[in-house]
Amino acid sequence: MKVKRVKIGIRSAKDVLDDFVAAGEAIERGEEVKREKAIYFESIEGFRKALTPKRLELLHLIREKQPGSIQELTRLSKRNIKSVATDITLLEELGLIDMKRKKEGRRESIPVVNYNKINLEIAV
Fold first, then answer.
1. What SS3 class is residue 39?
2. What's the CATH code of the domain at 70?
3. How many helices (H) and strands (E) would you count in the chain?
4. pLDDT tens per residue across span 87-107
5. Structural domains counted in the chain
6. 110 beta partners
7. Strand pairing of 117-119 and 109-112?
8. By residue range, what is the domain housing residue 88?
């Protein structure tokens, strides 16, 4: 089973910017900086707003039904196209889905979820 490992955490914008500045300074000194793929939210409420039950349902539908377009996903989810497109854009920005662009015919995009599970670790 494929697992998508994404570090998800709660941090203030100031803390994130401080880390960014520190990494830039380390690069200027010629030091190697470890890359980290992570998603940070300023609060638990922000996290809950990003990964809503409807967005998690979209991830599941994409994984299980493998729709060939956003329009097909809209039909499968029984939601309107605008809401689905908004959710897909956010999930893509978060790195939780990939969009494959069709090269032929109409310029449609195919949503792809190529993992079975998301692990979430929260430090206490």
1. strand
2. 1.10.10.10
3. 5, 6
4. 999 999 888 899 998 776 666
5. 1
6. 100
7. unpaired
8. 3-119
Question: Among residues 51, 60, 96, 116, which one has the least CA distance to residue 73?
Answer: 60
pTM over 0.70? The answer is yes
Q: Two tokens at 58?
A: 């979209």
Tokens 């329009």 found at: 71
State the Cα–Cα distance between residues 73 and 81, nearest whole angstrom. Answer: 9
Q: What is the pLDDT of residues 25-54, one digit of tens each?
A: 988 999 888 877 777 878 888 888 888 999
Q: How many CB atoms neighbour CB 73 within 10 A?
A: 23
In a domain, 124, yes or no: no
Residue 69 falls inside a structural domain? yes
Count of CB atoms within 10 A of residue 120's CB? 10
- Quickly count: other Cβ atoms within 10 Å of residue 68's Cβ: 14
